[in-house]
Amino acid sequence: MNNLAHELAETELDRVCGGELYMIRLQSLLSQRQMAIQLTTNMLRAMNDATSTIAGNIGK
């Protein structure tokens, strides 16, 4: 009986730790997603600024 309780406790511990690891992985992926969005935004802003500069130079 004690062995069964020990196995159940280990299973519960594995479930809790697995859930925590899942949350850490999810947080890491969300951080990577945010970084990709920020880099894309910066790139598009730079492209827009360059296009605006070119268009302004053509009009002179």
3D structure, described in words:
The chain is mainly α and 60 residues long. 95% of the residues lie in helices and 0% in strands. It has one helix at residues 2-58. It is rod-shaped. The chain starts with a helix and ends with a helix.
Descriptive labels:
60 residues, mainly alpha, rod-shaped
Stretches where pLDDT falls below 50 for ≥5 residues?
A: none
Summed over residues and divided by their number, the pLDDT gives a mean of: 86
Q: Give the radius of gyration.
A: 26 Å
Helical region count? 1
What class would the helix/strand composition place it in?
mainly alpha
Helicity, in percent?
over 70%
Helix and strand pattern? H
Tally the beta strands: 0
Main pleated sheet? none
Shape, principal axes of CA atoms? rod-shaped
How much beta, percentage-wise? Answer: under 5%
Report the end-to-end length measured between terminal Cα atoms.
89 Å
Write the layout of secondary structure elements.
Blueprint: H1 2-58
In short:
With 60 residues, this protein is mainly alpha-helical. It has one helix at residues 2-58.
